Amino acid sequence: MSKSLNECIFPMFPTIQALDVNALEAGEHKFWFAVATDAVGHPQTLPLRVFKGHRPGKRIMITAGIHGDEQNGILTAQQIARDLVGQEIAGCVTIVPAVNLSGIARHSRDFHSAAPDSSSTNLNRVFPGNPQGDDASRFANSLWENLLKPNADLAIDLHSQTSGSAYPLYAFADYRLEDAIRMARLINPDVILDDPGDPGILETVYNRSGIPSITIEVGIGRYTDIEMISRAASGVMNILKAYELLQGEVEPTAKCVEGKEIISVRANQGGFVICHVELMDRVEENQKLATQYNSFGDEVEVYYAPVDATVISHNVESVRAPGSLVVRLIK
Ligand SMILES: [Zn+2]
Q1: How does pLDDT run across 65-94, given as a tens digit for each residue?
Q2: Residue 209 pLDDT more than 90?
Q3: pLDDT value at position 115?
Q4: Which one, of 61, 49, 54, 59, lies nearest residue 26 by Cα?
Q5: How confident is the model at residue 3 (pLDDT cuts 50, 70, 90)?
Q6: Distance in Å, CA 171 to ligand 1 centroid
Q7: How many other C-beta atoms can be found within 10 angstroms of the C-beta atom of residue 41?
C-alpha cells in the first residue's frame, strides 16, 4: 500500500514554539520544536521527545548535538529515548537529540550562519543567547527560554571529543553543586573533571540558573563508538533510577579518575603526529607522548609529559596544525 505524500516527506508531529511539560498530559510525545527561522524564512525545527509520567517527580532535560560533529552524543540521546519507550516514569524526561542542525548536516562542530557578515559560531559559548543578537545567539536564546530553562530541574548535555581526537567516557561537573557531583558519579565514567564552568557554556548557564547540570563526553569525535554510547546511555538510566524517575536498582558507582587540572599538550608546528599513549594511561613527567614528522616523513619534534598525570585525550587524525591538540592530561 502506498503511503500518503505527507508521511513520505516528513513525520507529522505537532510543531510547537514553546514547551511547558507541567501542562502536558502524561505519556510519550514527539514534537517538532520551531527554534528559529532560516535565512529564507522557513522554520528550523528540532526533534523533541517528552516522556511524562503519571506520577510527579523530577524533570530532567537531555540535550545532544550542540556541537554538530559530536555524533556519539546524539546517538546516546537517541538510545536513551529508545530505552525509555514503554517505561513507567515518575516526573518527566525531555530529550532534544539533535540541537545544532546546520552543524550536524555539515559534520561540523559549529553553528553555520547564513548571514553574509557572520562567521560560524561555537554554539556552546553563546548561551543563554540574545534575542537581539546574530542568528546563532537568537537560536540559542529561543532554545534556552522556550524549551530548556522552563522544563528542567536537572540537566544533562551530551557531547564527545571534537573531530580528530578521542576522549574516554568523561564528565564535567561543578563540584560546588552536590547534584552535579552525584549525577557525574552515577554515570560511572572513566574521568570526572571538577570544573566551575565558563560563561556561554550551556552547563554553566544551567548551573547559574539553579538547574544542576553536567556535560558528558561520549568518546571520540565524529565516528561511532557503540561501547561508549551504551555505557553513557546506561549511566543516564542510572541517574534516572537514582532520582526515582525510573524504578530499578541503582548500579553502584565505581571509583574513577577525578581531577581538577587539565594540561593540553599542543602541536608547536604543523605536521603529522603519531601518539605513543592510550586513553587512561598513567604517564610520568618527561615520558614521551608523541612524535611529529614533516611531510617528507622526517622527525621534527617529540612531545613529553610536563607532569605526572593521566591521558584523557589524544589525536586520532595525524595532521596537526600549529596549536592543535596532541595529548590532553588530567591531574
Ligand atoms: Zn562538544
Answers
A1: 999 999 999 999 999 999 999 999 999 999
A2: yes
A3: 87
A4: 54
A5: low
A6: 12
A7: 6
Cell numbers at 220, concatenated: 571520540
Measured between alpha carbons, how far is 262 from 264 in angstroms, rounded to an integer? 6
Cell digits of residue 261: 587540572
The closest of 196, 197, 193 to 216, measured between CA atoms, is 193
- How many whole angstroms from 17 Cα to the centroid of ligand 1? 25
Cβ count near 11 (within 10 Å): 9
Alpha helices in 135-187 (DSSP H): 135-143, 178-186
Contact 248, 239 (CB under 8 A): no
3-class secondary-structure state, position 229? helix
Confidence band (pLDDT; 50, 70, 90) for 12? confident
C-alpha 155: how far from chain center = 11
188 contacts 257 by C-beta, under 8 angstroms:
no
What pLDDT was estimated at residue 118?
85
Q: What is the pLDDT of residues 153-178, one digit of tens each?
A: 999 999 999 999 999 999 999 999 99
Q: Which residues, 6+ apart, have CB-to-CB distance to 9 below 8 Å?
A: none
The rounded Å distance from CA 198 to ligand 1 centre is: 14
d(CA 266, CA 100): 27
| Residues lying with their CB under 5 A of ligand 1, a single-atom ion | 67, 70, 159
Q: Is the pTM of this model over 0.70?
A: yes
pLDDT class of 1 with cuts at 50, 70, 90 = low
Q: How far apart are CA 107 and CA 98, in angstroms?
A: 12
Distance 89 CA to ligand 1 centre (A): 29
For residues 146 and 134, give the distance between their C-alpha atoms in angstroms, rounded to a whole number: 18
Ligand 1 center to 236 CA (angstroms):
17
| Strands (DSSP E) found in 243-307 | 257-259, 262-266, 271-275, 282-283, 288-293, 299-304
Which helix H or strand E contains 74, and what residues bound it?
Answer: helix 71-84
Amino acid at 200: G
Q: Hey, what's the cell of 169? A: 567516557
What is the 244 CA–ligand 1 centroid distance (Å)?
Answer: 28
